[in-house]
Amino acid sequence: MLSRLGALLQEAVGAREPSIDLLEAFVEHWKCITHYYIESTDENTPAKKTDIPWRLKQMLDILVYEERQQTGAGEAGPCLEYLLQHKILETLCTLGKAEYPPGMRQQVFQFFSKLLAQVQHPLLHYLNVHRPVQKLLRLGGTVPGSQTEKEEVQFTTVLCSKIQQDPALLTYILEGKKMVSRKKSSREPSTLPREAANIQDKDDPHSKAPDRSSGGARALSPQPPAEMEEPGGGAADSNLITSLMGLCKSKKGRVALKAQENLLLLVSVASQAAATYLVQSSPCCPAVAEHLCQLYQALPTFLDPADIAALEGISWRLPSAPSDEAAFPGKEALAAFLGWFDYCDHLITEAHMVVADALAKAVAEKLFVEILQPHLLHVSEQSVLTSTALLTAMLRQLRSPALLQEAVAFLLGTEPQPAAPDDGPRTLCTHLIGHCDHLSDEISITTLRLFEELLQKPHERIIRSLVLGYLEGRHYVARGSPEPESYEDTVDLEEDPYFTDGFLDSSFQPSAKHPPAPPTNLDGKTAVTEIVNSFLCLVPEEAKTSAFLEETGYDTYVHDAYGLFQECSSRVAPWGWPLGPTPLDPHEPERPFFEGHFLRMLFDRMSRILEQPYSLNLQVTSVLSRLALFPHPLIHEYLLDPYINLAPGCRSLFSVLVRVIGDLMQRIQRVPQFPGKLLLVRKQLMGQVPGEQLDHQTLLQGVVVLEEFCKELAAIAFVKFPPHGPHLHLSPPREGHV
């Protein structure tokens, strides 16, 4: 097209200079556009039905062709000089703002986009280019839901691509309308004689072409951007950021997605200076965080935690909820919020480190601290329930290290030292742990899910603050006493306060006596066979029902535990955990041991497993299993070694389970036909028989959970032993045997 245009021009003018012919044609097209506004009286004819689009296209083709014919690299041709000195882009902005003829704004956006994309000469450095670019951005940003959204987003795409190629352009394009004019100087191309700007008087365009030998080229040299006012003074002004944010909120999915991709391109600039400018002198981070807060506040007051947990697969590229899922009130609003949160997380992941840190802090301050924390601490149970479930959903989607760091600091506080036993609920973390033991079972379950999700995040401070900080020093192990020679030396049932006379006199006895002295390896670790048997034989045969059903065997737990352990091990591998516990000093005096608020809550909940609802028991055991999977020697010892010699007054997970078994032995004597009812309840839970209401149903369901939990712990111990890796050469033992 361009080559044919050049050939036609050369044929028409014979031996005349091709560049001069191009300039004449360029000026003629521009004069025809301006004459339209003088001669036309019809205000209703759309712009696309006039010759304006064709004229603009011819002007663009001439500029591109002229540039290809230029011999000097980086040199502006006569047509481009004419465009710049006569402020054609400024005039087009004014015509677009007037929207006359109708649809002119669309034509202006298209011309700007194609000009900046197709002309290779650096244009955005010129004041007479980046100033109309700013005006055009403001024009688009002030018309939400306008008919030109498609053209606007194409325009921002070109600008963001240019910034990606040359980050120095960021300061030119991001300026708001509050610009302080510099003193007039000879190098500023905006100061032109009035008659030079009036194209109506240019009957002979050749006489008005700039004289490059007398300073014309110098007048067109790239200029630094005009000075900004005080930092923050233009934060509310419309610029590229506010334009992109407006387009991100578009109801048109493709427009919003393209705008989000453009913003992502902008924040990933490689230049340190550009990233700093983006943080300090633009509304980027506050605007992104503010929109997230607006979407959160638009959520319904009541949202079912089950609906929140079930809404998965939401991403910023596909923010609408899947159509195959059941509808519920607030579903679209929830999908929009989670979609934008996923976008924020993706922005922080891909952005320059300076931008990522600033955006993560903005999200933490605006959403977590100012909005979410008051809801989590509210007296209204519904407020606590909804906000906790939403926070869990956010954690499930969170991937960026910077935002994870802020979320951990928000939830666990900034104090590195573990809390003391008598510390009141002064921090958010202790409040949330208290919610796990709430009077409302629903709040307890929802908050336990929050902690389970938190434990799966790759941040060492989580497990250290909740558990490891309290286990260091191994003060739960008795000092100054020799290692026991047999298991009976450590657990004397007649003296153990966890067992009562009713248990010892009961006709129900454990399925197998605890083994004698557990064999140990050369490094002193208890053999895996003894640990596994201790958990498998803990529940007496009279209280077991899984043997009657084929799908509840121990092998399934081993398979699942192996996969989860491998996943957990790879997540914590960079933390450099030791392979074994630090040896005890037998001469060190015993110190008071506190298991921490989190483990104390879990152990207290576990001790009430026979009295709690089935769904709550499932969640408590799920969190404990998640903890037991961590390949740290202290966690392994404290949660999975039944043979540790506990210090006076201390308890471990195994000792809590032993006490629950003692309580069970008393309770089942008061339940007639206990074995039959227990099997019926298990079948009900598995959906094999209709779920009719029975006496002692909570107790019976608790027994089923207890049996399955012991098998799960045995499987975890099997795949973990020794603590630094599973014994892959061992076959999983049959249930009840190793």
TrEMBL record:
The gene is FHIP2B. Residues 181-236 are annotated as: Disordered. Residues 200-211 have a biased composition (Basic and acidic residues). It holds the Pfam family DUF5917. This is FHF complex subunit HOOK-interacting protein 2B. Belongs to the FHIP family. Residues 595-687 form the FHF complex subunit HOOK-interacting protein C-terminal domain. The lineage of its organism: Eukaryota, Metazoa, Chordata, Craniata, Vertebrata.
